[in-house]
Amino acid sequence: MTGDSSIRWPIVVLFCVIAGLLLGVSYAGLYVVFQRVVRGQFDRRISEVATPIIADLALDPEDKDVDLLNISEEYFEVLDSSGTVVQRSRNLSENLPVSLLAGFQTVRLSGIGEIRAALIPFQAGEHAWIFIAAASTREVNESLAAVRRFALVLLPASLLLTAAVFSFYSNQLLARIDTVVGQLRQFVSDASHELRTPLAVLQGETELLLARPRTAGEYEDAARVMESELKKLTLIVDGLFTLSMADARQLRIAREPLYLEEVVEESCGLALPLANHKKIQIERDLQRDVQFNGDATFLRQLFLIFLDNAIKYSRSGSRVRVTLTKKDDVRVCFQDEGIGIAKEDLPRIFERFFRAGPPTETQSGGLGLAIAQAIAQAHNGFIECNSVPGMGSTFIVRLPAN
Predict the structure, then answer these.
(1) pLDDT above 60: residue 86
(2) What is the SS3 string spanning the chain?
């Protein structure tokens, strides 16, 4: 990495703050839900304990059975309609400090601590009574306290683990971004360099034409030079557009059934004038009836790139051999007798604007092999290259068999 540490740690800190807040809110929400569930179950248990006792009292409210109850951490009272305690369990030394409102109440009792009480009105004959069933909340509070302690330990541990994972992946992400930015800078630099030459030629020719009146022949020569440079610019711009669409995964491939040998034959025919000019023979050995679903225009461009390079990098009077076979996959092979590619250059031949060997203009302004790779990948294929300096190169386009 080059200088991304200055932004990595602020990003990590910001992420930790946000993650800490989210984790804190999540744990708090879970705790509130857990607390409500536990206390709700506790209230239901108190009601279930009170139900059979109330049923018994309703039959004979004068029976003093409640006075005999002595259950650990469970307390009972019976009140008349005026609120006077008429019965109280043996483990109570004082009246329960509750209001006479029906429902559940949480109160504190001296010597016992916090208790949860349920006030349940019931009718026995013509008289109204109030039954109070209460229980210590000690176990509930201890359970909730244990959950809080666990959360207090788990929250920082989760935050530290999250921060460590994020720091690791942010490190990789920033490294990747740094690499991509570096590649982008190099790409812009290379593109600027490639565009500078034809633009300089066009500017120079224009200045010469405008410097003084010229003859018709001089104007015609200048127009030819300008046309040639404009073609180069067009090739570069078209190539950049194709690659940008491929990078955005928006290269529009119009797939249709076709015979691949026909597309290869058409490509060889288009390359024939250049081959004849250099007295290079194009030999073809094409398997027939090779069906394939692909874009004929892009495939033709793909094959022309290899034919163009093979011809331009080969000596006069040599041969270019083109073969097409189909077995487990489809293979289109372009073999030349050219200058070859140095071993150290092979890993870089598909880079944009990279040229191995002496300078020459390729069909796509230095972008040919990058475009070829993009087209092959858009057809779910790939390209292999074998080369021996001084003896030639072999490019193999491998496409999936239909």
Answers:
(1) yes
(2) CCCCHHHHHHHHHHHHHHHHHHHHHHHHHHHHHHHHHHHHHHHHHHHHHHHHHHHHHHHCCCCCCHHHCCCCCEEEEEECCCCCEEEECCCCCCCCCCCCCCEEEEEEECCCEEEEEEEEEEEECCEEEEEEEEEECHHHHHHHHHHHHHHHHHHHHHHHHHHHHHHHHHHHHHHHHHHHHHHHHHHHHHHHHHHHHHHHHHHHHHHHHHHCCCCHHHHHHHHHHHHHHHHHHHHHHHHHHHHHHHHCCCCCCCCEEEEHHHHHHHHHHHHHHHHHHCCCEEEEEECCCCEEEECHHHHHHHHHHHHHHHHHCECCCCEEEEEEEECCEEEEEEEECECCCCHHHHHHCCCCCCCCCCCCCCCCCCCHHHHHHHHHHHCCCEEEEEEECCCEEEEEEEEECC
pLDDT score, position 343 = 85
pLDDT at 352 over 80: no
How many of the other CB atoms lie within 10 Å of CB of 362?
Answer: 18
Phi-psi sector, 329: left (phi>0), alpha (psi -120 to 50), beta? beta
**Cα–Cα distance measured from residue 229 to residue 198, given in angstroms and rounded to the nearest whole number:** 5
Contact 333, 392 (CB under 8 A): no
Q: Region 284-301: what's the mean pLDDT?
A: 91
Query: What superfamily in CATH does domain 256-400 come from?
Result: Histidine kinase-like ATPase, C-terminal domain (3.30.565.10)
Q: Which whole number is the average pLDDT over 387-393?
A: 89
**How far apart, in whole angstroms, are the C-alpha atoms of residue 241 and residue 374?**
12
Token pair recorded at residue 377? 């990948």
Return d(Cα 226, Cα 206) in angstroms, integer: 9
Structure tokens of 386?
A: 């074998």
Q: What is the pLDDT of residue 13?
A: 81
pLDDT for 37 beyond 60: yes
- Banded pLDDT at 5 (limits 50, 70, 90): low
pTM, two decimals, is 0.51
Domain locations along the chain: 256-400
Nearest residue to 155 (alpha-carbon basis) of 259, 51, 21, 312: 21
Which pLDDT value is given to residue 297?
A: 86
Using one digit for the tens of pLDDT, what is the confidence trace for 173-183? 777 777 767 66
Which of 39-53, 187-201, 344-358 is predicted with the least confidence, judged by mean pLDDT? 187-201
